[in-house]
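User: I'm curious whether this sequence folds into something compact or stays loose and floppy. Could you predict its structure so I can see for myself?
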Amino acid sequence: MAAIPFPPVLPTGRSYSPGRYAQSEFQSLNGATTILRLGSQRHESELSLDFDNITDDNAALILASYDAQNIGDNWVQFDASNGTAGASAQLAAYLGETITGLRWRYADPPQVRSVFPGRSSVTVKMRGYLDS
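Assistant: Here's the prediction. I'll summarize afterward.
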């Protein structure tokens, strides 16, 4: 069980969802709603990274990262040289999940599209898990 650094490939686009807090909602017969918070930490954050028109060698580095994360119980770690590049320090803390301690894992295998010989575009979807 170890952190696998994401390859030093800069994304051309990204989207992030901070996840949810565990809670249950109860509605009484008169319509009043009670929300019971079941934890104090978020879970299931989502991060989607787009890498447009990168070299095939960089695409292969991303695929190797996917394989390395899936060997054992590893997780992916982002920093300013890859997934959080270009973000302010405050936003980078969310994108890297250093605030919550969630661990990034691939939600799906990376999707690779050939652009032309030697160039590809890759989409990576990550999910943040709260390990116990």
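Summary: The helical segments are 56-70, 89-95. Residues 3-129 form one domain.
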